[in-house]
């Protein structure tokens, strides 16, 4: 092989290995060519802030996918957290309070309560998967349905019945809707939350025993077991962390929208799984990175936002998004496929 | 040192292990001295792996006891064995391929600094162990990028990192080049000088005689002898390994080989580490055996003929006309049938009925319009049960509830329903008790007498000698020779099998 050809094959290999980042850049370039106005700080801030809660959910699901599991209950848990936190955070003077006699709590208390609740459901998922050996798809499908029921019972009750839980206290809406002013712009807090959780998750995945075990369990469960890894315990913790992330995401979702219903978060898990897959997380376990997951979420958000910006019909957006999921995985399979 | 070499670090005495219908180990003993290399030898199925599995707690022994350094032990799992200084370098390496070398080495016991993993210590400790063993692998490289030999080195380093007193190596050289084998032997010497005992399982005579101090030979689940390696020759080892009589275990032959129907020329696998340049002919009504050690790529050759693997070159001619079996569908259409080695995983549908299991390879024949003809399905299933002499209460019985021998008969019957000309049988009597084996042999004989061409892989030498007409002996992916069954001997086949 000539040096030139070797160089070429190296470049091809690099492009193959970093295909999602290349794709993200090409996507942005494409949209900018179609409409140069797209490149603006406001658009950037909008895309990032819309991505924030999705990144947090996707990071939770990604950990589970890396253990060769899956979590269909994520969206419904987001809804549960949204309803629970909103019900505890209604302003003192709001007419339709779910708990009329509840004093106005400091905003972080309901957030913690919501996270504890979804964290417990996460543990339950983990126990069902690792102790009762129910396939994760089924375990979390069941959980998805049950959690919706639980959320609905909590949501639809006297005195006011099934109506959006609104009138959230100002301290809370500030937490989710405002930001840090820099120059002429305000950088939403949401973006910082996403950054903070990304850093925490990156550290867990790369610097702790739990993280290494997570990759080992997904990559070769037998090897993990014979090396003395407590597989069940690690799986339960990974599902719990995911639950905590859904909980936080649900509260900021309620705060961002300003209200919550039992349908908040519906189907978010599918968006998150799609983003993970496009971001290079392997559904068969053992492979996935935090930057990859973030890139996956951003790709979908840029498609959403960018195509809307270009005035493309939302129906076409669906077609594009669906095609990207399939193409991304087909690429990935090609990379891993080996001839017998 | 000399004193250490006379004390037994491991004493396994009078082990017996029974499986339903089979005695896998019968009163087997093994004594290994510290700082020595102890070879464990025997044909496939002699009980070597079972013995090791008892040591590691993968199987529970029925009788006997194990002394480690004078103390009785009974490990519940391989992790426990590892922590007590007994480790194993597996033939199939148990590693997380997506992670890097040091992550694998310290999995389950990472050095920590507070709540974080101490990557620096991990790296330094890995380098220190690698240096002490003369291994030059970057601890940060991903396991999936390593060669088989390097992965094996990592496994050995892992064993060393547990301060193992005994390291079991199962066929460690089966996929190594000569140079890599030399490196392995150097490492073994080094371990030996540190008073580590090595239990070395291998089929390769020269290697054994070169590297080991003592040799224990097993046969048919029984202990045969332990001898000092310097007192042994290849011939003596073979004699000890195979010495048994062949009387009355096989039906008398009645087939008459006719014209050549299948000709295979220069068959070479696309995967370079598999087989190359395989040549043979098969006659009508002939039973051609394929002998070879585990890892000699016999199954790969058979699966390639059946279109399951890709070839890089070579020609397959059926009745003088070239055929290309690109997939099993092609192969079936061309009159090939394959009874696979792993009956449980690739042969039967255990929860489904005998009827389903009989017709599944051949559904097209039962179509009547868009439906399947119940009557024809019933008739053919009946034919399978009657002509194969399957012992079953009914056609609807799930095949999983039959004995191994009866399951195998259904599978063979299934393939006969496709009306094949060439029948490929991969270990057709594995896991079947002696009586049922006889019936399978009779069946194979009958099929050959009816004019089918039969190729049969077997790891049981007596079986090949008792059933086949000729035997292709494979060694390390190459054809070592084709011998005439009537005039050959186990010794000759063994020698050919260890040729490359």
Automatic annotation (TrEMBL), chain A:
<feature type="transmembrane region" description="Helical">
    <location>
        <begin position="231"/>
        <end position="249"/>
    </location>
</feature>
<dbReference type="Pfam" id="PF02653">
    <property type="entry name" value="BPD_transp_2"/>
</dbReference>
<keyword id="KW-1003">Cell membrane</keyword>
<keyword id="KW-0472">Membrane</keyword>
<dbReference type="InterPro" id="IPR001851">
    <property type="entry name" value="ABC_transp_permease"/>
</dbReference>
<feature type="transmembrane region" description="Helical">
    <location>
        <begin position="270"/>
        <end position="303"/>
    </location>
</feature>
<feature type="transmembrane region" description="Helical">
    <location>
        <begin position="107"/>
        <end position="128"/>
    </location>
</feature>
<feature type="transmembrane region" description="Helical">
    <location>
        <begin position="51"/>
        <end position="68"/>
    </location>
</feature>
<protein>
    <submittedName>
        <fullName>Galactose/methyl galactoside ABC transporter permease MglC</fullName>
    </submittedName>
</protein>
<feature type="transmembrane region" description="Helical">
    <location>
        <begin position="20"/>
        <end position="39"/>
    </location>
</feature>
<feature type="transmembrane region" description="Helical">
    <location>
        <begin position="315"/>
        <end position="333"/>
    </location>
</feature>
<keyword id="KW-1133">Transmembrane helix</keyword>
<feature type="transmembrane region" description="Helical">
    <location>
        <begin position="134"/>
        <end position="155"/>
    </location>
</feature>
<feature type="transmembrane region" description="Helical">
    <location>
        <begin position="187"/>
        <end position="205"/>
    </location>
</feature>
<keyword id="KW-0812">Transmembrane</keyword>
TrEMBL record, chain B:
<feature type="domain" description="ABC transporter">
    <location>
        <begin position="10"/>
        <end position="245"/>
    </location>
</feature>
<dbReference type="InterPro" id="IPR017871">
    <property type="entry name" value="ABC_transporter-like_CS"/>
</dbReference>
<keyword id="KW-0813">Transport</keyword>
<comment type="similarity">
    <text>Belongs to the ABC transporter superfamily.</text>
</comment>
<keyword id="KW-0067">ATP-binding</keyword>
<protein>
    <recommendedName>
        <fullName>Ribose/galactose/methyl galactoside import ATP-binding protein</fullName>
        <ecNumber>7.5.2.11</ecNumber>
    </recommendedName>
</protein>
<keyword id="KW-0547">Nucleotide-binding</keyword>
<dbReference type="InterPro" id="IPR050107">
    <property type="entry name" value="ABC_carbohydrate_import_ATPase"/>
</dbReference>
<dbReference type="InterPro" id="IPR027417">
    <property type="entry name" value="P-loop_NTPase"/>
</dbReference>
<feature type="domain" description="ABC transporter">
    <location>
        <begin position="255"/>
        <end position="499"/>
    </location>
</feature>
<comment type="function">
    <text>Part of an ABC transporter complex involved in carbohydrate import. Could be involved in ribose, galactose and/or methyl galactoside import. Responsible for energy coupling to the transport system.</text>
</comment>
<dbReference type="InterPro" id="IPR003439">
    <property type="entry name" value="ABC_transporter-like_ATP-bd"/>
</dbReference>
<keyword id="KW-1278">Translocase</keyword>
<keyword id="KW-0762">Sugar transport</keyword>
<dbReference type="GO" id="GO:0005524">
    <property type="term" value="F:ATP binding"/>
</dbReference>
<dbReference type="Pfam" id="PF00005">
    <property type="entry name" value="ABC_tran"/>
</dbReference>
<keyword id="KW-0472">Membrane</keyword>
<dbReference type="InterPro" id="IPR003593">
    <property type="entry name" value="AAA+_ATPase"/>
</dbReference>
<keyword id="KW-0677">Repeat</keyword>
<keyword id="KW-1003">Cell membrane</keyword>
């Amino acid at each position: 092989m000539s040096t030139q050809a070797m160089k070429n094959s190296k470049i091809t290999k690099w492009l193959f290995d970093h295909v999602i980042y290349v794709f993200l850049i090409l996507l942005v370039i494409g949209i900018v060519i179609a409409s140069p106005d797209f490149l603006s700080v406001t658009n950037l801030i909008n895309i990032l802030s819309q991505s924030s809660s999705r990144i947090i959910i996707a990071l939770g699901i990604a950990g589970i996918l890396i253990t060769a599991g899956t979590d269909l209950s994520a969206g419904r848990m987001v809804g549960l957290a949204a309803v629970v936190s909103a019900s505890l955070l209604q302003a003192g003077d709001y007419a339709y309070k779910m708990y009329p006699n509840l004093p106005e709590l400091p905003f972080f208390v309901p957030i913690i309560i919501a996270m504890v609740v979804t964290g417990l459901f996460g543990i339950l998922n983990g126990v069902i998967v690792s102790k009762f050996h129910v396939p994760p798809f089924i375990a979390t499908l069941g959980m998805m349905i049950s959690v919706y029921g639980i959320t609905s019972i909590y949501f639809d009750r006297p005195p006011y019945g099934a109506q959006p839980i609104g009138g959230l206290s100002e301290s809370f809406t500030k937490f989710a809707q405002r930001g840090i002013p820099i120059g002429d712009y305000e950088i939403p807090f949401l973006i910082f939350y996403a950054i903070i959780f990304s850093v925490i998750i990156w550290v867990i995945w790369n610097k702790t025993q739990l993280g290494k075990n997570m990759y080992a369990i997904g990559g070769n469960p037998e090897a993990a077991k014979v090396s003395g890894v407590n597989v069940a315990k690690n799986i339960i913790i990974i599902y719990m962390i995911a639950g905590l992330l859904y909980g936080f995401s649900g509260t900021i979702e309620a705060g961002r929208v300003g209200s919550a219903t039992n349908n908040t978060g519906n189907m978010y898990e599918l968006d998150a799984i799609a983003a993970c897959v496009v971001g290079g997380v392997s559904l068969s376990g053992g492979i996935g990175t935090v930057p990859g997951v973030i890139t996956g979420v951003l790709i979908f958000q840029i498609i959403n936002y960018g195509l809307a910006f270009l005035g493309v019909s939302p129906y076409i957006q669906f077609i594009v998004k669906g095609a990207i999921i399939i193409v991304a995985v087909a690429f990935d399979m090609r990379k891993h496929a080996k001839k017998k | 040192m000399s004193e250490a070499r006379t004390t037994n670090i491991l004493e396994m005495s009078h082990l017996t292990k029974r499986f339903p219908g089979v005695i896998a180990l019968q009163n087997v003993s093994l004594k290994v001295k510290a700082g020595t290399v102890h070879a464990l030898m025997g044909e496939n199925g002699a009980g070597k792996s079972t013995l090791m599995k008892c040591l590691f707690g993968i199987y529970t022994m029925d009788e006997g006891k194990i002394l480690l350094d004078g103390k009785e032990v009974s490990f519940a799992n391989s992790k426990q064995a590892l922590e007590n200084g007994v480790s194993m370098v597996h033939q199939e390496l148990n590693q997380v391929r997506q992670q890097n070398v040091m992550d694998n080495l310290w999995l389950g016991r990472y050095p920590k600094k507070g709540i974080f993993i101490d990557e620096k210590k991990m790296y330094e400790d890995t380098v220190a162990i690698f240096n002490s063993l003369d291994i030059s692998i970057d601890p940060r490289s991903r396991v999936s990028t390593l060669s088989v030999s390097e992965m094996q080195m990592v496994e050995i380093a892992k064993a060393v990192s547990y301060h193992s007193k005994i390291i079991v190596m199962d066929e460690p050289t089966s996929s190594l080049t000569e140079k890599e084998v030399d490196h392995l032997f150097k490492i073994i010497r080094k371990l030996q000088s540190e008073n580590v005992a090595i239990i070395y399982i291998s089929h390769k005579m020269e290697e054994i005689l070169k590297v080991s101090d003592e040799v224990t030979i097993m046969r048919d689940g029984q202990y045969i002898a332990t001898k000092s390696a310097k007192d042994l020759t290849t011939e003596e080892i073979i004699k000890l390994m195979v010495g048994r009589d062949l009387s009355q275990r096989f039906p008398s032959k009645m087939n008459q080989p006719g014209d050549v129907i299948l000709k295979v020329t220069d068959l070479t696998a696309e995967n370079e580490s598999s087989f190359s340049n395989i040549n043979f002919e098969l006659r009508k009504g002939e039973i051609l055996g394929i002998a070879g050690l585990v890892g000699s790529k016999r199954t790969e050759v058979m699966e390639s003929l059946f279109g399951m693997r890709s070839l890089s070159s070579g020609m397959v001619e059926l009745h003088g006309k070239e055929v290309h079996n690109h997939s099993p569908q092609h192969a079936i259409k061309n009159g090939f049938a394959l009874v696979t080695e792993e009956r449980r995983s690739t042969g039967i549908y255990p929860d489904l009925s005998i009827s389903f299991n009989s017709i599944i390879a051949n559904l097209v024949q039962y179509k009547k319009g868009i439906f399947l003809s119940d009557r024809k399905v019933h008739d053919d299933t009946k034919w399978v049960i009657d002509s194969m002499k399957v012992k079953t209460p009914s056609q609807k019985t799930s095949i999983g509830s039959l004995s191994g021998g009866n399951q195998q008969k259904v599978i063979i019957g299934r393939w006969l329903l496709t009306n094949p000309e060439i029948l490929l049988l991969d270990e057709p009597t594995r896991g079947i008790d002696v009586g049922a084996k006889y019936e399978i042999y009779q069946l194979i004989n009958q099929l050959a007498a009816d004019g089918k061409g039969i190729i049969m892989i077997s790891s049981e030498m007596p079986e090949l000698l008792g059933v086949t007409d000729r035997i292709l002996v494979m060694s390390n992916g190459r054809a070592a020779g084709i011998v005439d069954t009537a005039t050959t001997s186990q010794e000759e086949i063994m020698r050919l099998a260890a040729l490359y």
